Amino acid sequence: MTTVTHAASPTDESTQPSPPTTGWRTRLKDPGSWAEWAAPLGFLVMVLIFQSLNTTFLSLGNIEAMLAAAAILIVLATGQTFTVATGGIDLAVASTMTFSAIIFGTVFAAGAPVGVAMLASVAAGTGFGLVQGLFIGRGRITDFIVTLGGFSVASGLALVVSDGQPTTIIDRFLLRFATGSVWIIGYPVLVAVLVAVLAHVVLFHTRFGTHVLAAGGSEEAATATGISVARVKTAVYTISGSCAGIAGVLLVARIGADEPAANTQFLLNCVAAVVLGGVALVGGRATIVGPFFGALLLTGLTNGLTLVGVSQYYQPVAVGCVVVAAAFLSRYQK
Q: Which chain regions cross the lipid bilayer (predicted)?
């Protein structure tokens, strides 16, 4: 058999389709790639800008303060990531945290050890998340309606249980936990990092994590492959409630009391951190590293604006603009 090879002429080359280019230049031109790295890159740019405007921004004391302030938001954003990964959202996460903190204070005031009060806080958040998950997963009620109602219920329960009055919590262990650190990394921050690492392992290295992403990508396809979408949705809202319970413990440790007032800023910021982190709001695509840096970015943004003398009234405007920009980039994710 004779093989005949034709030499390619310039004309032939011009008519052949060019292979797709996947180099870094192509990725730079793709807005979807920017969405994936919006939080880390935004965090780096923010650090450079604020450090040039005020050299105390990267001082050890300020870094320690920012990390401590970001711990609660990291935990809430981690739990929120699971719900958003299924195409849902937990609007009650901040109220659940407040309710869990009130349970912490109530149990502690009744004479229980601080360790029991911590467990009670996490149990309260987990239970509230489970109830919401059952309504959404088993009851097939829209997550927006259920969690919006949950927001009101949790806020009301916090006021009813506490009678609208905060309880000051004085405990030596809790004080050491709140103020102790490993170098500049406080114990609450270590807890937040541990929660994020465990969430990453669960989401990307377990069968359950695969089911979460599959349910978010297409409920019909997930059901066809034998995945119980109802169970997955129940589980993710339970996880979100557990994270809110942990955040309740961190909140009590931070302020030394169980404040019954609604912490709505945490709801807005945790959703913003998830959006900044590149988690697809339609579900099926998620990351833990992204929301982690998103929480750091939002905390650092507020801190930096304060250091450079920007009025606190303008700070929500800046946060909102950053979130809208990130949401715009997320439209191009594939």
A: 34-53, 65-84, 144-162, 182-204, 235-256, 262-282, 313-332
